[in-house]
Amino acid sequence: MHEMALAREIVRLTEQAAAEQHVRRVTRIHLQLGALSCAQPDALDFAFTACRQGSMLGEAELAIARKPALGRCPDCGDVSEMWSRLDGCAHCHGKMLLAEGGEELRIVELEVQ
Fold it and tell me: Which domains does the chain have, with CATH numbers?
Protein backbone atom coordinates (compact mmCIF):
# COMPACT_ATOMS: atom_id res chain seq x y z
CA MET A 1 0.00 0.00 0.00
CA HIS A 2 1.95 2.99 -1.27
CA GLU A 3 -0.58 5.37 0.28
CA MET A 4 1.18 4.80 3.64
CA ALA A 5 4.48 6.04 2.19
CA LEU A 6 2.68 9.01 0.63
CA ALA A 7 0.98 9.83 3.94
CA ARG A 8 4.30 9.71 5.80
CA GLU A 9 5.79 12.13 3.27
CA ILE A 10 2.79 14.47 3.55
CA VAL A 11 3.28 14.54 7.34
CA ARG A 12 7.05 15.14 6.98
CA LEU A 13 6.69 17.94 4.43
CA THR A 14 3.88 19.60 6.37
CA GLU A 15 5.80 19.51 9.65
CA GLN A 16 8.85 20.95 7.89
CA ALA A 17 6.85 23.81 6.36
CA ALA A 18 5.08 24.49 9.66
CA ALA A 19 8.38 24.62 11.56
CA GLU A 20 9.84 27.05 9.02
CA GLN A 21 6.84 29.35 9.51
CA HIS A 22 6.74 28.92 13.33
CA VAL A 23 3.27 27.39 13.21
CA ARG A 24 2.05 25.56 16.32
CA ARG A 25 -0.70 23.47 14.77
CA VAL A 26 -1.94 22.48 11.32
CA THR A 27 -5.68 21.86 11.15
CA ARG A 28 -6.22 21.02 7.47
CA ILE A 29 -4.09 20.07 4.50
CA HIS A 30 -5.46 20.74 1.03
CA LEU A 31 -4.14 18.24 -1.52
CA GLN A 32 -4.49 18.10 -5.27
CA LEU A 33 -4.51 14.50 -6.45
CA GLY A 34 -4.07 13.72 -10.14
CA ALA A 35 -6.54 11.24 -11.61
CA LEU A 36 -3.70 9.02 -12.86
CA SER A 37 -1.66 9.12 -9.64
CA CYS A 38 -2.69 5.57 -8.67
CA ALA A 39 -3.37 6.83 -5.13
CA GLN A 40 -6.81 6.01 -3.76
CA PRO A 41 -8.28 8.96 -1.82
CA ASP A 42 -9.93 6.77 0.85
CA ALA A 43 -6.77 4.74 1.41
CA LEU A 44 -4.66 7.91 1.53
CA ASP A 45 -6.98 9.46 4.11
CA PHE A 46 -6.88 6.27 6.20
CA ALA A 47 -3.07 6.13 6.04
CA PHE A 48 -2.79 9.84 6.89
CA THR A 49 -4.97 9.36 9.98
CA ALA A 50 -2.53 6.70 11.21
CA CYS A 51 0.61 8.69 10.32
CA ARG A 52 -0.47 11.99 11.88
CA GLN A 53 -0.71 10.52 15.40
CA GLY A 54 1.90 11.89 17.79
CA SER A 55 2.74 14.82 15.52
CA MET A 56 1.69 18.46 15.34
CA LEU A 57 -0.92 17.23 12.85
CA GLY A 58 -2.71 15.19 15.52
CA GLU A 59 -6.23 16.26 14.51
CA ALA A 60 -5.51 17.64 11.04
CA GLU A 61 -7.81 16.72 8.19
CA LEU A 62 -7.00 16.04 4.56
CA ALA A 63 -9.07 17.87 1.97
CA ILE A 64 -8.44 15.98 -1.26
CA ALA A 65 -9.39 17.55 -4.59
CA ARG A 66 -9.13 15.23 -7.57
CA LYS A 67 -7.76 16.77 -10.76
CA PRO A 68 -8.20 15.20 -14.20
CA ALA A 69 -5.27 14.49 -16.45
CA LEU A 70 -5.21 15.81 -19.98
CA GLY A 71 -4.89 13.35 -22.83
CA ARG A 72 -3.95 14.15 -26.42
CA CYS A 73 -5.53 12.00 -29.09
CA PRO A 74 -2.97 10.73 -31.62
CA ASP A 75 -5.75 10.34 -34.22
CA CYS A 76 -7.31 13.83 -34.24
CA GLY A 77 -4.96 15.87 -32.00
CA ASP A 78 -7.77 16.96 -29.67
CA VAL A 79 -7.09 17.25 -25.93
CA SER A 80 -9.61 15.68 -23.52
CA GLU A 81 -9.88 15.30 -19.77
CA MET A 82 -8.89 11.86 -18.51
CA TRP A 83 -10.02 10.28 -15.25
CA SER A 84 -8.63 6.86 -16.21
CA ARG A 85 -5.99 5.56 -18.62
CA LEU A 86 -8.85 3.79 -20.38
CA ASP A 87 -10.68 7.00 -21.29
CA GLY A 88 -11.11 7.68 -25.00
CA CYS A 89 -11.13 10.89 -27.02
CA ALA A 90 -14.19 13.06 -26.41
CA HIS A 91 -13.98 14.38 -29.97
CA CYS A 92 -13.36 11.38 -32.28
CA HIS A 93 -13.80 8.56 -29.72
CA GLY A 94 -10.27 7.30 -30.37
CA LYS A 95 -9.27 4.61 -27.91
CA MET A 96 -5.75 5.63 -26.90
CA LEU A 97 -5.08 9.04 -25.39
CA LEU A 98 -1.51 10.05 -24.61
CA ALA A 99 -1.57 11.34 -21.04
CA GLU A 100 -0.12 14.74 -20.26
CA GLY A 101 0.24 15.00 -16.48
CA GLY A 102 -2.32 13.75 -14.01
CA GLU A 103 0.10 11.77 -11.85
CA GLU A 104 0.79 14.54 -9.32
CA LEU A 105 0.04 14.72 -5.64
CA ARG A 106 0.51 18.31 -4.53
CA ILE A 107 0.12 20.02 -1.16
CA VAL A 108 -1.72 23.17 -2.19
CA GLU A 109 -2.54 24.88 1.10
CA LEU A 110 -2.24 24.47 4.85
CA GLU A 111 -4.76 25.77 7.35
CA VAL A 112 -3.00 26.57 10.60
CA GLN A 113 -3.50 27.97 14.09
Answer: 2-68+101-112 (3.30.2320.50)
